[in-house]
């Protein structure tokens, strides 16, 4: 029996990229999966099939998790249709290739709302559920740029991912009396559909050459999440796990 058997996990922004990788690994480890994204996309049915093929239950709930009303609707769905929540992965996020001389206030607010406000709203709702059952795990997906800074501009993205680390430490203290552990993962360069689109095969090869262990895969992040959510993470809270292949040493 897997150590996550019977656990229910919500992964925000989980139809593609890192979120999809996390969902697949957690299902392999025995968790039932609630998928979420801002739109339904074309891959929902295929991903649901892959998850249920592991013998686990799976749901999809469309919601913009930077919107309080839609987050409330998502968690009403979890209470009414799923029955509870054990694991929250705050993965929903976005970026933008602009530096401070080009970024306007609307750009700043969009990145902060998507990357930070969403994590606050979902963590608040999740902790309300988890404290009723005296236990749960939250993992915030940050980024290597929260520690080393963004290599090109992206000050709004770097600020948002740094904010997640402060949220993680604070909620770890808040959640501990209720048996709720809160940690963060800081991925490095991960080979997602977006990376392939923006860099192409040649660009990814150049990136890989600069990283001791090369470019990572979404599954690598999923395995790290599973560790923090499982027995191995029982005495870990308030920490940031770097999963970057040696791109940055803290």
Q: Can you walk me through this structure?
A:
With 250 residues, the protein is of the alpha/beta class. Helices cover 46% and strands 15% of the residues. The chain is built from eight helices and seven strands, in the order E-H-E-H-E-H-E-H-E-H-H-E-H-H-E. Strands 3-2-1-4-5-6-7 form a seven-stranded parallel beta sheet, sandwiched between helices. Helix 1 (17-28) links the parallel strand 1 (8-11) and strand 2 (32-37). It is globular. The mean pLDDT is 94.
Write down the overall mean pLDDT. 94
Number-wise, the strands total: 7
Radius of gyration: 17 Å
Largest sheet: 7 strands, parallel
Strand fraction equals 5-15%
Q: Could you spell the SSE succession in H and E letters?
A: EHEHEHEHEHHEHHE
Give the terminus-to-terminus CA distance: 35 Å
Shape: globular
The class by helix and strand makeup works out as: alpha/beta
- Spatial strand order of the main sheet: 3-2-1-4-5-6-7
Number of helices: 8
Helix content: 40-55%
| Low-pLDDT residue spans | none
Write the layout of secondary structure elements.
Layout: E1 8-11, H1 17-28, E2 32-37, H2 44-52, E3 58-62, H3 68-82, E4 87-90, H4 105-130, E5 136-141, H5 145-148, H6 155-175, E6 180-187, H7 193-209, H8 218-229, E7 240-243
Parallel strand pairs: 1-2, 1-4, 2-3, 4-5, 5-6, 6-7
Give a quick summary of the entry.
By secondary structure, this protein is of the alpha/beta class.
């Amino acid at each position: 029996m897997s150590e996550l058997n019977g656990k229910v996990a919500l992964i925000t922004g989980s139809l593609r990229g890192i979120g999809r990788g996390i969902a697949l690994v957690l299902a392999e480890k025995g968790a039932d999966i609630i998928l979420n994204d801002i739109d339904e996309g074309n891959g929902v049915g295929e991903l649901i099939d892959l998850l249920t093929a592991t013998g686990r239950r799976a749901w999809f709930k469309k919601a913009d998790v930077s919107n309080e009303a839609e987050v409330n609707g998502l968690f009403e769905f979890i209470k009414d249709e799923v029955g509870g929540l054990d694991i929250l992965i705050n993965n929903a996020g976005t970026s933008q290739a602009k530096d401070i001389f080009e970024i306007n206030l609307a750009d700043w607010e969009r990145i902060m709302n998507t990357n930070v406000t969403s994590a606050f709203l979902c963590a608040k709702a999740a902790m309300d559920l988890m404290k009723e059952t005296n236990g749960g795990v939250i993992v915030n997906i940050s980024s290597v740029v929260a520690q080393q800074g963004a290599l090109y501009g992206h000050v709004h993205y770097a600020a948002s991912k740094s904010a997640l680390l402060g949220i993680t430490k604070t909620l770890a203290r808040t959640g501990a009396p209720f048996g709720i552990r809160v940690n963060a993962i800081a991925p490095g360069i991960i080979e997602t559909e977006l990376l392939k689109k923006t860099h192409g095969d040649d660009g990814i090869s150049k990136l890989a050459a600069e990283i001791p262990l090369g470019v990572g895969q979404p599954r690598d992040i999923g395995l790290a999440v599973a560790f923090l959510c499982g027995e191995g993470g029982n005495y870990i809270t308030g920490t940031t796990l770097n999963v970057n292949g040696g791109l940055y040493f803290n």
